[in-house]
Amino acid sequence: MLLSLLAYLGCGAIAGILAGLLGVGGGLVLVPMMLAIFPTVGVPPQYVQQMALGTSLASIMITSVSSARAHNKRGAVHWDIFKAITPGILVGTFGGGLVATHLPTMFLKVFFICFLLVVAVQMLSNYRPPASRDMPGPLGTACVGGGIGLVSSFVGIGGGTLSVPFMTFCNVPLHHAVGTSAAIGFPIAVAGALGYIVGGWGRPDLPAASIGFVNLWALVGIASASFCTAPLGARLSHALPAAQLKKGFACFLILVAVKMAWGLL
Q1: What DSSP string runs through 7-61?
Q2: How far apart are CA 30 and CA 156, in angstroms?
Q3: Which residue ranges traverse the bilayer (predicted)?
């Protein structure tokens, strides 16, 4: 138990820094790490992916609050965008979480691997849609939020890999898009975690310290560490060359995707 708790703390520290630094959501790192840890602590193989996704989303509740506070102090959170996108986020993420709890583990793993590769390619190419328009109206923004929430629930992330490009496309400055994305991560995390809790409630053979598909030991370890390191990531995002860091992180994601794919084969 001590070793697993230390592993969770390490996962949380890394996820917090990434959430504040890159605005990509610590779930991209959390999920693969938990996929490696959970089989050693008694999570049944058929539930490992769902447990990793649900716990990742639950931990992002803490990470997003810490990161958003740090960005807000720098005036980098657009609360008008947050208010417009949140209704769609809540519906899309909760519904996606419920659906994911009934999907085959293999499908979720393949979806996650494909998502990692898409994110990595986007980071390496540094492609961004040309900033050529303003944010859509409240209905359009909410619909976009629904799509972001749905995908986020399938991969256990705070939505930054989708919301940041969307906002920069709509002429929101990059640092402000990252800061606003950190705030948007909170409703994604709440609705997604709730979906995995409800969908996993009463499932047999889950570890004792679990509420549905959320592992409480992992949540405590990850959340406590990420809360401390997310502000550090936010500070670094305003001081370090984010483009070079993203390319390095993209190479790491490709390695993770290849390793996961090899494991499936």
Answers
A1: HHHHHHHHHHHHHHHHSS-THHHHHHHHHHHGGGGT--GGGHHHHHHHHHHHHHH
A2: 9
A3: 7-35, 47-68, 80-100, 106-127, 139-157, 177-199, 211-233
Pull the structure tokens for residue 206.
């889950």
pTM: 0.83
Strand 214-215, strand 210-211: pairing:
antiparallel
More confident residue, 242 or 191: 191
* Per-residue pLDDT at 124 exceeds 90: no
Query: Residues 163, 19, 77, CA angle at the centre, nearest 5°?
Result: 55
Mean pLDDT of the chain: 84
Residue 202 gets the label, from left (phi > 0), alpha (psi -120 to 50) or beta, of: left
Helix (H, G, I), strand (E, B) or coil at 203: coil
- For residue 12, the model assigns a pLDDT of 82
Q: Which two tokens stand for residue 105?
A: 């583990």
194: left (phi over 0), alpha (psi -120 to 50) or beta: alpha
Nearest to 214 by CA among 28, 47, 32, 63: 47
Residue range 148-184, pLDDT digits in tens: 999 989 988 777 778 888 888 888 887 888 889 889 9
Question: pLDDT tens digit string along 60-94?
Answer: 888 788 778 888 888 889 999 999 999 999 999 99
Contacts for 90 with CB less than 8 Å, ≥ 6 apart = 149, 187, 190, 191
Nearest to 18 by CA among 178, 169, 131, 138: 178
